[in-house]
């Protein structure tokens, strides 16, 4: 099982380290000590990432005016295995990315709830909006 420092958790949540610390202090997600570091277990962080995304989470900072990049680093929040195919959900900050791939690929990559992953997107149609 993967574990994350508060700093790594903050990056995956798309918030500042101070915000992640405040959330941990308020017991919004469980942490444990490893020496001097506070750690978050992957499945606990995955569940919290989904909760924050559903709340419209973030630390109150407005997103910059930008076109999204093609790589979305995040944490695996769900894996559904079929006989041949699989569905993997990744929470990348406020974005939920769902991918269909082979069961073999999921097993080779060791994808499980709480694991770090990067969703990479290639598309022939990309829409850019300015809010």
Give a verbal description of the structure.
With 131 residues, the protein is of the alpha+beta class. Helix content is 29%, strand content 33%. The chain has a 4-stranded antiparallel β-sheet. The protein has a 3-stranded antiparallel β-sheet with strand order 1-3-2. The chain is globular, with a radius of gyration of 16 Å. The model is unreliable at 57-68 (pLDDT under 50).
Task: Compute the number of strand runs.
Answer: 7
In terms of DSSP E residues, the strand content is 25-35%
What is the rounded Rg? 16 Å
Strand order of the largest sheet: 6-5-4-7
What structural class is derived from the secondary structure elements?
alpha+beta
What ranges have pLDDT less than 50 throughout 5 or more consecutive residues?
57-68
Mean pLDDT, to the nearest integer, reads 85
- Give the distance, in angstroms, between the N- and C-terminal Cα atoms: 39 Å
Number of helices: 4
Order of helices and strands: EHHEEHEEEHE
